[in-house]
């Protein structure tokens, strides 16, 4: 089932997501819904709080949205080490019509659980490393626009307020 993606400045996006204590059928259904929602919206990653579920769950498929060959979900993911630095252009399904360069770690090691409850440890670099950092940031209540310059952020916030006023008038 496809879910609605919440958009900035929805408060759930600034909320730290709760740890998942048990992988229930509901969590598995949420992961499935998130994958479908991610693909329908042409994304390569999605955090549960982006569909208004503030729990520590992400779905990722950097082969997507067209190929859909490398889908995985991580429960309670955390970055356990990071090294190097890279700057890449990022966008976000929850941040309407905006992309900006963001500095992140070049390589990361991420630990979490798969949907069967098995521990997973991923060493990632390149696009996968950036995607994992982006989605795990969501679980901490951080958006990529929180990592850009104050000037760029102020300009985006001004545009977002204008869109909100226009939507209220419609």
UniProtKB/TrEMBL annotation:
Cofactor, how bound (note): Binds 1 Fe(2+) ion.
Highest rank taxon of the organism: Bacteria
Q: Specify which residues bind Fe cation according to the UniProt entry for this protein.
A: 92, 134, 138
Q: What reactions does this protein catalyze?
A: N-terminal N-formyl-L-methionyl-[peptide] + H2O = N-terminal L-methionyl-[peptide] + formate
Instruction: Tell me the GO molecular function terms.
Output: metal ion binding; peptide deformylase activity
Q: Which cofactor does it need?
A: Fe(2+)
Which leading EC class covers this enzyme? hydrolase
The UniProt record lists the EC number as 3.5.1.88
Q: What residues make up the catalytic site?
A: 135
Gene Ontology annotations of biological process type: translation
InterPro entries in the record: Peptide_deformylase, Peptide_deformylase_sf
Key word Protein biosynthesis present: yes
Q: Name one Pfam family in it.
A: Pep_deformylase
Q: What does this protein do?
A: Removes the formyl group from the N-terminal Met of newly synthesized proteins. Requires at least a dipeptide for an efficient rate of reaction. N-terminal L-methionine is a prerequisite for activity but the enzyme has broad specificity at other positions.
Family, according to the entry, reads as follows: Belongs to the polypeptide deformylase family.
Q: Which NCBIfam families match?
A: pept_deformyl (TIGR00079), PRK00150.1-3 (NF001159)
Q: What is this protein called?
A: Peptide deformylase
Q: Which organism is it from?
A: Desulfolutivibrio sulfodismutans
Q: What is the lineage of its organism?
A: Bacteria, Pseudomonadati, Thermodesulfobacteriota, Desulfovibrionia, Desulfovibrionales
| Gene name in the database record | def
């Amino acid at each position: 089932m496809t879910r609605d993606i919440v958009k900035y400045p929805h408060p759930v996006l600034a909320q730290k997501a709760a740890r998942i204590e048990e992988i229930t059928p509901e969590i598995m259904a949420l992961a499935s819904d998130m994958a479908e929602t991610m693909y329908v919206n042409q994304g390569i990653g999605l955090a549960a709080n982006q569909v208004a579920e503030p729990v520590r769950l992400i779905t990722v498929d950097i082969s997507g949205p067209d190929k859909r060959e490398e889908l995985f979900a991580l429960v309670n993911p955390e970055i356990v080490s990071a090294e190097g630095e890279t700057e890449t252009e990022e966008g976000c399904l929850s941040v309407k019509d905006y992309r900006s360069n963001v500095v992140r770690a070049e390589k990361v090691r991420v630990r979490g659980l798969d949907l069967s409850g098995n521990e997973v440890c991923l060493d990632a670099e390149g696009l996968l490393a950036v995607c994992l950092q982006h989605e795990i940031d969501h679980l901490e209540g951080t958006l990529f626009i929180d990592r850009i310059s104050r000037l760029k952020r102020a300009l985006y916030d001004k545009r977002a307020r204008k869109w909100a006023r226009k939507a209220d008038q419609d």
